[in-house]
Amino acid sequence: MEIEFKKVRETQVAYIAHVGPYGEIGPLFAEIAGWLAGKGLQISAPPFGIYYDNPQAVPAEKLRCEVGFPFIGKTQREGKIKVKKIPAREVLSRIHKGPYGEVGPVYEALTRYAMEKGYSVVDAPMEIYLNAPGEVPESELLTEVQIPVTKE
Is the separation of the CB atoms in 78 and 35 below 8 Å? Predict the structure, then answer.
């Protein structure tokens, strides 16, 4: 699958910040979706994760991420669920097909492409989960990896 440069619009999101193994985040999505539904707010796009640390370089118990959903409507943070706007940005994007744990080569390809084409990475990468483990076999999972960049 090819690497694509694209512009992403500003997006309002509800999210939970997590510190610990990335493999523990699954239940957080249901928690956020339930919270949004309980407030009568509409999820406007697939769930996402923003990953601040490389699991090959940071101990699992110290990994930092934010997971959540874009949504339409107005609300404020409540408990551990926060609300913010992710600004419009330019990204390099590539789709990964297969298990979440095998997404590493996509990050490597995006980083290599950015360096070769004169882009600077300007923020933490985001994964957008285009389908879910309950919907398709693990081998059919689709994850869009986006790396925010600017042209040097």
Answer: yes
